[in-house]
Amino acid sequence: MKIENGKYTSEKVSNQSDQLFSFVLPVNGSTKNGFFTHLFLRLKSNVVQIKQQIFSLRALSKSQLVLMSTFMLLLTAAVLMYYLQPNFEAFHDSRLATDIGKLFFGITLVLLGYKFLFFLYSVYLYVKYRSIASVSDEELPTCTVIVPAYNEGALVWHTLKSLADSDYPKEKIQLLAIDDGSKDDTWQWILKAKEMLGDRLSIYQQPENKGKRHALYRGFHLGTGSIFVTVDSDSIVKADTLRNLVSPFVTSANCGAVAGNVKVLNNQKAIIPKMLNVSFVFSFEFVRSVESMFGSVLCTPGALAAYKREAVFNCLPEWINQTFMGKPSDIGEDRAMTNMILKQGYEVLFQRNAHVLTNVPETYKGLYKMFIRWGRSNVRENLSMVNYVFKNFRSGSKFGTRLLFLDQSFKLIMTYPALIFMLYFILSQPVLFVTATLFSILILSSIQVFFYAKRYTITESFWAYSYSLLYAFGLFWITPYAIITASKSGWLTRELTP
Description:
The chain is α/β, with parallel strands linked by helices. It folds into 2 domains: 58 residues; 437 residues, Spore Coat Polysaccharide Biosynthesis Protein SpsA, Chain A (Alpha-Beta Complex), CATH 3.90.550.10. It is built from 19 helices and 14 strands. The strands form 4 sheets. Strands 7-6-5-8-11-10-14-9 form an 8-stranded mixed beta sheet, sandwiched between helices. Strands 1-2 form a two-stranded antiparallel sheet. Helix 3 packs across helix 16, helix 8 packs across helix 11 and helix 15 packs across helix 16. The relative contact order is 0.10. The N terminus is likely disordered. InterPro entries: Nucleotide-diphossugar_trans (IPR029044). One of its GO terms (molecular function) is hyaluronan synthase activity. This is Hyaluronan synthase. Its main location: membrane.
């Protein structure tokens, strides 16, 4: 057997079969064992076809196989939804037969109605959203860019180089790199960057690893700019990113912070980054655009954010000494800073035209650790928002901030009731549960697919389906776990990979 033009040919197999049956004597002009010969040839042909299919599957990438499997699951669920309608109706009727079932169904209807109306309102705000155009060089304020680094290796060099290549006026930018007691060769790469950039870069080394919050704290005190920009040491900015990020401070006197537009840098290396790339686009370009219309972006990302100097120093002592349940807070420094700036009455905006590419986890373990950290921070800061969100914390409209807070709170409050119902559904009707979950993913994830396809490419947009599958069946436990472990500290993903 050989391969010609990527396909199997059966020349050798044919010769072998001819030799094998050459001893069969003809009887009355036909082969006595003709039936068995025909059967063997049919089997031989089927074997060749199977081998061709195996060869074709091997030629497919893991990414293609994941997407194909995703579509097969979701399409199967759509078919099952049709055929299992009587079963779903019977299950629904059995729930309504009890008072608890009626109560749960009523609450579900109210929440679904709220979410639907909130989504429609969000679409309206998204359509109205516009990025603020870059102001002139003369109008741009002085800014200090702080890059805290821990165990990033060569990535920090690329980050600093991309910042140095920005088209921001050189005389108005101060670039600081702070090594937070790295255990690898990060400091050597920072020294190489210093060697390349000279006086344009100032470098510092923490005597020991104290955490990102403390590295930023040192940078805030060293900075001389009227605007602070923080950039993660595994992120790459575009040439116009800094000027686009900082421009809202010029056009809006009440702007206290600005969130950048984060995309995935390593989305060509592994499947999880491909999924997160689509998720990030929706999370930033849709969700934060809506939040920005309220002047209340809830979290300025560590990958790229800008803060007014005055707003930072107003809350810096509280921020660096922040505790939760008596323990120092060593996570969620970006969400905490955003929260404290909102509390002062400032607006927090989003700039869709300020792009940054950042590395994300490529393994399931790295992914869930990152999400646990984010989940714990979300719980802590939502509890913190209770202290001011319903007070007169801002001179202008407070409706948007309160609406966003309620939306976040409903998700947390309904976590355990939803988990209990899910367990009940699984134990009582496992087939219906899987079918309903997959069909819901097909419907709801299509929103993200359409959004990404419209803004970028159709082929990559399909990863929204795969990501939803991963989250529904592999990461659903994150929020309930983060709630009950919200007091735990630890970065979880800062150590060197073994």
